[in-house]
Amino acid sequence: MKALIVAAAASQAVYAQHEHGAADLVQMKKTAKPAAFSTEQLALTAVLVDLIIPRSDTPGASDAGVPMILDAVAAKNAAFKKQWLAGLQWLNQGRNFRSLAHEHQVAILTPASMETASAGGKFFKLAKDVTIDAYYSTREGLMTELGWHGNTFLKEFKGCTHPEHQV
Amino acid sequence: MQIKKSPEVHDVLIIGSGASGGMAAWNLTRKGVNVLMVDAGTKFNRAQFWSHVKPWEDRSRRAAGMEPPKFYVDTKEQPFTYDKGNPFDLMRVWGRGGKTNVWGRVALRYSDVDFAGPERDGWEIPWPIRYKDIAPYYDQVDQLIGVCGGDDDQDSLPGSKFHLPPAAPRCGERLMQKAAKDIGISLVSGRRAVLTKEHNGRAPCHYCGACGKGCDIGAFFNSSDYLIEPALLTNRLRVLDNAVVARVLVDDKGRANGVQYYDRFTREEHKVFAKRVIVAASCIDSTRILLNSKSTSYPNGIGNSSDVIGRYLSEQVRFHMFGFVPELMGAATQNDDGIGGEHIYMPRFNHRDGRKRDYLRGFGSQFWNTGAQANASFAKQLPGFGLDLKQSIKKRYPALVALHPYGEVLPQKTNRVTVDGSPPDQYGVPIAKISYNIGENERKMVADMYDTAEAILRSAKAEIMPFKRGSTDINGSAIHEHGTCRMGADPKLSALNGFCQSHDVPNLFVVDGAAFTTASEKNPTLTILALAWRATDYMAGEIKAGRI
After folding, report:
1. Taking a C-beta distance cutoff of 8 angstroms, is the pair B496, B504 a contact?
2. What pLDDT sits at residue A164?
3. DSSP character for B99?
4. What is the domain partition of chain A in residue ranges?
5. Pairing between strand B243-250 and B321-324?
6. What is the ipTM for the molecules in this complex?
7. Does residue B440 carry a pLDDT above 90?
8. Which of B53, B210, B217 lies closest to A14 in CB terms?
9. Which residue of A lies nearest to B212 if distances are taken between CA atoms?
C-alpha cells in the first residue's frame, strides 16, 4: 500500500515536471554575423544548401538556419572549414555560381551528385550529408517538414494506431 | 610518495558499481554484510540529464558551451590498446551505476539452448550451471527491477510470469512480425527493463524515447537508483568515489585482502582492506585488474593458475540492415518513441528442426530505429537532391524499419586481454591490450544472418537500403564483452566455479560478464544480475559458515 502511494506521488511529480512544456534554455540565432565564413561564403552556402533541400510548402534549408549551423561547425572544426571553403571554390571555378540561373546551378551539381570519385563529387556528398544532418535536426526540418512530434511526455503509448496494420 | 592506508577492514570490498557490483552490494548489505564499494567515478545527477532536450536545442546548448553529463570514459583519460590494424571499440562508463545509466535495456533470459550449447557441440568447456539453477534468480531480478515483455516464450527465450505489460508494437514492427511469420520466423515481444507501469514505488516510463541520454526519472533499471541507493539506506554500504582500482592485494596466505587504488584526479595512491573481494569492474577492466594483481603467490595474476584469465574474450558480431515498408510510405507520422529501442525481438531459431547450418551456435535480432526517428540519417543514402529528394525523404520517413542481428562469437584461446608489455596509464598501471579476431564460424554465421535479415525485409516487400553483405560492425560495438575469467567445473580450464568464486582464491569473486563461459547471442545484463545475486547468496552463506 505504501509503495502504491509513493508510486502515485512519483507519477504526479513526473507529470508536473513535464507538463509545463519545454521552453528552450538556449536558442541559436539564424541570422547573426558568421564566425567562420565571410558574408559571401555564407550566401553561397545558403544557395547550395537550398539546392539540396529547397523551400516547398515547408521551409527549406536556409529558412531553417542551416548556413549558420554549418558556420558554427566550421568555427569549431578546422578540417571541415578547409574542406567546405575548398568546395565553395570548386563551385565558383571560372564563374560566379551564385549569380547563375537555377537550372544552370542544377546542371552543375547533377553530375557531381552521381559519383564520389572527383573533387566535385566528394564535395557534393559532404554538402548533402551535412545539409541533411543539419536540416532534419531543426524544428523546421524535423517537426514542420517530417511531422516528428516525439521526445515528449505521454501517459500511454498506444503503438500502431492504424487499423489496417493490426495483426 | 606516502601511500595512504585506511585502517578499517571491511567485510567485503566490491570493485565497480554497475549491474554486477550494484547487485552484489544490494544483496550483501540486506543480508547484514558490511560493504565497501570502490567506484572509478561519482554519481550522475539525474536533474542534469538532457533527456528532454530537442535536437536543435542540443546544438544551441553546445554552441553556448554547455555539455550533457559525460558518461563515457575518454580514451585520452584511460587508454587501452589493440593489435595494429585490428581495432576494438571499448565503451566504458566510470561513475555510479556504470553502463546501466545509458544501457540498451534489453533484458533476455538465457535458456538451456545457451547453457548446454558447449556440451552439445563440443566447442570449449561446458557451463557449470543450467537454466534451472538460475531461473529462480531471473524471477527475483524481474520482480526487483521491473522487466516488460510478453508471454510468447520460446525454447531459446524463456518467458517470465513476472513480466510487466509489453510495449505495444509500432506499425513498422507489426509489419515486420507479419513478414517474418510468413517465412516461419516468430518475432516476440521485446523483453526490456523499462517500467511500463508503476513498479515498486517507481514512476513508469513516459515514452520520451531519449533513454540513451539517461532517464530523467529513472524509469528503466539503473544500478545506482535501483540497487545502490537502497543499499546505502541499510547503513552497511560505503562508496569510495573517484577511486581507480589498480590491483587486488593479497596476504601472505595468498588470500585477497584489499585493493590498491589511485584517486582519479589527484593520482594519489591508496590501499583499503577487506576480508573478501568482489571484482565487478566490467569485463575488460576486471580482467586488467586481475592480470595486474601479481604477487609471489600469483605471478601471472591473482586466481590465474589455469592461465585462462584474459583468454576466451567473446563479444558478438553485429550489423544493421534498413528498409522502408510499402504500407507506411507516405503515411501520417506517428510518435514512434515508445520505450526507446525496439518493442519486438527475434529469438534464436536456427537450431530448430529442419533448419540446416554449417556453423555452431546462433543469432537473434533487435529492431531499434523502426518508424519516426529524431533524425533522417537514412536520407544520405537516397539519390539526387532538390525537391525530389525532399519528397522522397518525407515519404520514407514513417516507413523506416531496421534489423540489428547479433551473433555469438565462439570462445577462442587466442582472443585475449593482456597487460604484459603494455604501456602504463596515468597512474603507472599497465593498460589493457585487446587481441581479438572473428573466425570462420562467425563468418558463416554472418552470412546466414544477412540471408535472414534480407529474407524478412523481402517478405515485407520492403525497399531495402544498400548494404555490404558480410560486413560487420567494428569488434566491440555490441558492448557485450564476456568470457575472460570464465566459470567452469574444472579448475585447470576455468578461473571460477558456478558461484563466480575463484578456484584458486576462495575469498575472491568475479561477478560481471567476465565470468560467462560463452557469450551466446543475447544481451547479457539480466543474466549478469541473476548470476551476481546467486553468487552473493552463496558468498553470504560461506561467510556465515566461516569458510571465507
Report:
1. no
2. 79
3. G
4. 39-145
5. unpaired
6. 0.92
7. yes
8. B217
9. A151
